[in-house]
Amino acid sequence: MTAQKTYLPPVNTLEGDWYVVDAKDQRLGRLASEIAMILRGKNKPTFTPHLDTGDFVIVVNAEKVAVTGKKRSQKLYRRHSGRPGGMKTETFAKLVERIPERIIEQAVKGMLPKNSLGKSLFTKLKVYAGPTHPHTAQKPKELIINTIPGAEG
C-alpha cells in the first residue's frame, strides 16, 4: 500500500501578487470574506491548507464601507486593556469616525485561521481610510469584488 503525499506547490508560486480593492459602498461581511479568500490563496489552483499561498490585498476607501439594517448604530466593537474593568465598547458609527481601517481589519481577521498561519496571512492585508495608498511601487492590480451594493440604513 502506498502512502499519500502532501501536495507542495512550486517555490516560485509562493510569492504573492498585489491587488487593490475599493471598499466604497461594498457590504462589510461579503467584502471581508472575499478578501480573506484571496489572502489565504483559495482562489488559486495551488492552494495548500498549511502554507501561505495567498496574495497581498490593499483596501482603499475603508471609511465608505456599507452595513445594512441598524448595524451602524447597534453593532458593537469591544477591546480590553487586560486590566480589571478595562473593557471598552463603541458602536460602528463611532469607530468609523475614529479608526475606519479597524472595521475591515477585524472583519477579515475573524475569517482567517486562528493560529500562526493566520497571523502571517493578516500581515498581507493593508487597509487605508482614503482613496490613496503608498504601494504603487508594487504595481497592484485592480480587483473587482461584486458584492451586493450596500444600502445606507
TrEMBL record:
<comment type="subunit">
    <text>Part of the 50S ribosomal subunit.</text>
</comment>
<dbReference type="InterPro" id="IPR023563">
    <property type="entry name" value="Ribosomal_uL13_CS"/>
</dbReference>
<dbReference type="InterPro" id="IPR005822">
    <property type="entry name" value="Ribosomal_uL13"/>
</dbReference>
<keyword id="KW-0687">Ribonucleoprotein</keyword>
<dbReference type="GO" id="GO:0003735">
    <property type="term" value="F:structural constituent of ribosome"/>
</dbReference>
<comment type="similarity">
    <text>Belongs to the universal ribosomal protein uL13 family.</text>
</comment>
<dbReference type="GO" id="GO:0003729">
    <property type="term" value="F:mRNA binding"/>
</dbReference>
<dbReference type="GO" id="GO:0017148">
    <property type="term" value="P:negative regulation of translation"/>
</dbReference>
<comment type="function">
    <text>This protein is one of the early assembly proteins of the 50S ribosomal subunit, although it is not seen to bind rRNA by itself. It is important during the early stages of 50S assembly.</text>
</comment>
<dbReference type="GO" id="GO:0022625">
    <property type="term" value="C:cytosolic large ribosomal subunit"/>
</dbReference>
<dbReference type="Pfam" id="PF00572">
    <property type="entry name" value="Ribosomal_L13"/>
</dbReference>
<keyword id="KW-0689">Ribosomal protein</keyword>
<dbReference type="GO" id="GO:0006412">
    <property type="term" value="P:translation"/>
</dbReference>
<dbReference type="InterPro" id="IPR036899">
    <property type="entry name" value="Ribosomal_uL13_sf"/>
</dbReference>
<protein>
    <recommendedName>
        <fullName>Large ribosomal subunit protein uL13</fullName>
    </recommendedName>
</protein>
<dbReference type="InterPro" id="IPR005823">
    <property type="entry name" value="Ribosomal_uL13_bac-type"/>
</dbReference>
